[in-house]
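It is worth pausing here to work through a concrete case rather than discussing structure prediction in the abstract. The textbook approach is simple: state the sequence, then state the predicted structure, then interpret. We follow exactly that order.
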Amino acid sequence: MFRARLRSVLGDHSGAADDIARAVPLIPPEAELRVELARYYDYYDQPSEAVRQWELWLSHRPGDADQRMGLNERCWLRARRGMELPLALHDCQRAAALPGSTPAPFDSLGWTQLRIGDLVAAKAAFDASLGMKADHVWSLYGRGLTALKAGDAQAAERDLRAARLLKPAIGTEVREAGFEVPDGVE
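Step two, the predicted structure:
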């Protein structure tokens, strides 16, 4: 895996992919390397393989804190790519329900609900995230887009402006992550 990382950093993506293909069968399902592999496959536009790596890794994490992170990341992967949205929703809900939750699963849940078109549930999830961290930029922006879609221009402008004050390029980041940002809204 070290050589694959080095090749990737040096721009030899096909060489890195070859090294990874040889290494994957040797890596135990529960190994932390599965997390790195999931992120690698997502980065190199192989989301189905990324999901498979998360599934292998998560199957060995029943109920621990790592499970929350893994469920959230798998939900986020699916939500960003608009794939398997019912499964994304299930992952986010499970992650958010685990004890000691953080804003991240609620944020991911909000984006998943927004992608599905359930504006009431999206707003509730973003509200929950912002209740834990009032300056969570992605949740502010997501809640603003939700309000915009719901026809509440005043709430939309308030949240979108607050998000842009915290991170001026948030609209570009959201669009690059795979979500729709209406023309004229940045």
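Step three, interpretation. The mean pLDDT is 90. The chain is about 75% helix and 0% strand.
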